[in-house]
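Hi support team,

I've been running sequence recovery on a batch of backbones for a student project. Most finish fine, but this one hangs at about 90% for roughly twenty minutes before it completes. I'm not sure whether the input is malformed or the queue is just slow. I've pasted the structure tokens below so you can try to reproduce it. Let me know if you need the job ID as well.

Thanks,
M.K.
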């Protein structure tokens, strides 16, 4: 008998992550791509789950970088509406981004910033 698959319950942040307030988890690069990052040094797998224009949810694997940071770059043509991180199968909201929105499935997601509306993200591209 097959049982229905259920995702682990959402959590605020990974148990092993040190996510200080004010950390820049989203920035743009010089080509206009959006870069997402999260610090989870003990994680075995980190993914970004995002809704893109047209309400297509995609889960994309992130790459482990030095010092326990996981990173993914989205092509400039992809427009992200809402997102959440998935650390070892558990959903994690970005603690430094607001506002949040609750999906029809009852799970909270973080609203993606617009580079044009958020000067902090636009300015971050100079350091990427």
């Amino acid at each position: 008998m097959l049982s229905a698959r259920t995702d682990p319950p959402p959590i605020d942040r990974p148990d092993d992550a040190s996510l200080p307030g004010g950390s820049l988890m989203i920035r743009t690069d010089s080509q206009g791509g959006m870069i997402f990052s999260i610090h989870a040094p003990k994680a075995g797998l980190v993914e970004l789950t995002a809704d893109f224009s047209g309400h297509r949810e995609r889960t994309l694997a992130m790459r482990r970088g030095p010092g326990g940071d996981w990173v993914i770059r989205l092509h400039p043509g992809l427009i992200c509406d809402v997102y959440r991180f998935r650390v070892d199968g558990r959903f994690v909201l970005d603690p430094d981004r607001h506002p949040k929105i609750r999906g029809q499935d009852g799970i909270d997601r973080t609203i993606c910033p617009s580079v044009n509306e958020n000067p902090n993200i636009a300015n971050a591209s100079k350091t990427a």
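--
Follow-up from support: It reproduced on our side and the slowdown came from queue contention, not your input. DSSP finds one helix and ten strands in the chain. No action needed from you.
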